[in-house]
Amino acid sequence: MSLTSELSRKQELLQQILSPLDRIIVAFSAGVDSTVVAKAAFLARGAQALAVTAVSPSLASGEKEEAIRLAELIGIPHRLISTSEFATDAYRANAPNRCFFCKTELYQLLSHSIAQEEWQNAILVNGANLDDRGDHRPGMQAASNFQVRSPLIEAGFTKEDVRNLARHWELPIWNKPAHPCLSSRIAYGVEVTEERVQKIDQAEAFLRDEFQINELRVRLEPNELARIEVPLPQIQHLTTPTAIEQITRKFLQLGFQNVTLDLQGFRSGSMNSFLSLDDLQIAAQNK
């Protein structure tokens, strides 16, 4: 895929932002955004760029392996680190600013552990793009607290720009659906536990494998109620008598108490739609 003149200009600007940096540490989740940043960082700085992937119970199955494969494909040095956000009471409490504590844990490790070794004085970068600024993103405040840079935002990249550049670079995840952490599926105020994220992960894997639906969410509401979100055209595949029986049996085996199908279909970040202005203000004050 060839680039438009505008996207070519943004690509050049991205390289100009990264090239003067001595050493770069990329917070690398294997999503399309951080993969493009990892590729750009490697093109700009070669072995002076490092991709780091956080591993914890909130990481969906298969994502660690994909991060390893993508880093090898790009050629960038890569490390896995274990994060302990589940040991933080504020994280487990699952208030609307939960992501702040997760990202704080990550950036602390990157700043105080890896960056104190041969990567001392390295610049931390993430994969945030312009479209991320329009949603509830407590993790962005954590990034600001640790002086983490967002080169895609600095270069003016939208999500569509990122996907188009990834396609131009022949990165196999250019059209990968957004895959936020498993904890984001749990309704605010419901405690985040390893057991809950594990059964969400298993439920989503079951639906993907059994019904070949790539983009979906299993939301966990109070009282262990599972709310399934799939794109509207896919709903019909989950409502046949056979499918209903299969899904119900599997979800009850996993530990859900009730199973529902959201007739509004898949909406990225739908949990945030339940937040009031007061909730958002309180989350901001508690950061």
| Topology order in helix (H) and strand (E) letters | HEHEHEHHEHHHHEEHEH
Counting DSSP H or I runs of 4 or more residues, the number of helices is: 11
| Widest β-sheet, arrangement of strands | 3-2-1-4
Number of strands: 7
Q: Helix share of residues? A: 40-55%
Largest sheet: 4 strands, parallel
The gyration radius over C-alpha positions equals 19 Å
Regions with little confidence, pLDDT below 50 for 5+ residues = 275-287
The structural class is: alpha/beta
The span between the termini is 42 Å
The proportion of residues in beta strands is: 5-15%
Mean pLDDT: 91
Shape annotation:
globular
Structural topology:
Elements lengths: L4 H14 L5 E4 L4 H14 L3 E7 L7 H12 L3 E5 L6 H5 L4 H15 L10 E3 L12 H8 L5 H4 L4 H10 L25 H18 L5 E5 L3 E5 L11 H14 L3 E4 L15 H9 L2
Parallel strand pairs: 1-2, 1-4, 2-3, 6-7
Antiparallel strand pairs: 5-6
Label this structure with key terms.
four-stranded parallel sheet, 11% strand, 11 helices, alpha/beta, disordered C terminus, 287 residues, single chain
What does this structure look like?
Residues 275-287 have low confidence and may be disordered. The protein has helices at 5-18, 32-45, 63-74, 89-93, 98-112, 138-145, 151-154, 159-168, 194-211, 241-254, 277-285, and strands at residues 24-27, 49-55, 78-82, 123-125, 217-221, 225-229, 258-261. The strands form 2 sheets. It has a 4-stranded parallel beta sheet with strand order 3-2-1-4, with helices on both faces. Strands 5-6-7 form a 3-stranded mixed beta sheet, covered by helices on one side. The longest helix is centred in the last third of the chain and has 18 residues, at 194-211. The protein contains 11 helices and 7 strands. The protein has 287 residues and is of the alpha/beta class. The chain starts with a helix and ends with a helix. Helices cover 43% and strands 11% of the residues. Helix 5 (98-112) runs parallel beside helix 6 (138-145).
